[in-house]
Amino acid sequence: MKILILGDVMGRSGRMAVKKNLNKIIKENNIDFTVLNGENSADDGKGITNLIAEEFFQEGVDVITSGNHIWDKKETTDYIEKEKRLLRPANLVEGSPGKGYGIFLTKDNQFKVGVINLMGNVFMKKTEDVFKKAQKIKEQMKLKKNVDFIIVDFHGEITSEKMAMGHFFDGSSTAVFGTHTHVPTADTRILEKGTAYQTDLGMCGDYNSVIGMNKENSLRRFLKDKTATQHFPSDGDATLSGIIIHADQETGLAKNVTRLIKGGSLKN
């Protein structure tokens, strides 16, 4: 079983890189299941539209995760109630539209894959306690009992909180990975009990930027220059950032995990 996970898709350049490369990556690596974080994929880098989500599904994505920008496009609140493959953080305030986790079939209907979307509590929007919510989900979704594989997207600011969640799920999930900071970390590994882990996958976007935003305008904002405008995405050649996991069908744990860095300025 091979699983592809892509970090936050940033604006139009990120979407174009996905459209250009995803199908080829899936075929070349014999990928069985694909997850990406789509919360920054709109043209302005904030939120996701219904049309963009549908395009991702058509291009081979099985589940879209998100984070603090999930409600930046008003249409999402209705769409997410109908489209179960689009997730929002499970620990958002009670009563939020949509679901924060679910069980999905691989394209060949052979395996059940649990996908869990969580958001950190530190320096993020107000949410329920993420570890308490994770514990509740962990009690409901059990590896090799009601699902074959479990993937956890932890959308958060700080590395310690992400690493703690990795150890919390170690041995009871296939993979835990971080999103949100848009910079890939160099700690890709398999934890002691068999869970693949990376603190942050980075973004699928133009790295000749400030976390995906136009660098010149970002510098003007940091310098308090009155000519600065609202942040807007950089539109250069995007790098796809993520991981590929080879998971054991018997245990549901990771046998191997490799980083995917393709195209754009980061690769060069």
Question: Structural class of the helices, strands and pairings?
Answer: alpha/beta
CATH topology: Purple Acid Phosphatase, chain A, domain 2
Topology as H/E string?
EEHEHEHEEHEHEEEEHEEH
> How many structural domains does the protein architecture include?
1
Indicate the radius of gyration in whole angstroms: 17 Å
Question: Which second-level CATH architecture applies?
Answer: 4-Layer Sandwich
Keywords:
single chain, 268 residues, alpha/beta, Purple Acid Phosphatase, chain A, domain 2, six-stranded mixed beta sheet, five-stranded mixed beta sheet, 25% helix, globular
Provide the fold topology:
Blueprint: E1 2-6, E2 8-9, H1 11-28, E3 33-37, H2 50-58, E4 63-65, H3 76-82, E5 101-105, E6 112-119, H4 130-140, E7 149-155, H5 159-169, E8 175-179, E9 189-190, E10 196-198, E11 203-204, H6 215-222, E12 240-247, E13 254-262, H7 264-267
Description:
The structure is a single chain. With 268 residues, the chain is of the alpha/beta class. The chain has one domain (2-206, 239-267): Metallo-dependent phosphatases (Purple Acid Phosphatase, chain A, domain 2, 4-Layer Sandwich). It has helices spanning 11-28, 50-58, 76-82, 130-140, 159-169, 215-222, 264-267, and strands at residues 2-6, 8-9, 33-37, 63-65, 101-105, 112-119, 149-155, 175-179, 189-190, 196-198, 203-204, 240-247, 254-262. The protein has a six-stranded mixed β-sheet with strand order 5-6-7-8-10-9, with helices on one face. Strand 9 and strand 10 form a beta hairpin. It is globular, with a radius of gyration of 17 Å. The two termini are 30 Å apart. 48% of the residues are buried. The mean pLDDT is 96.
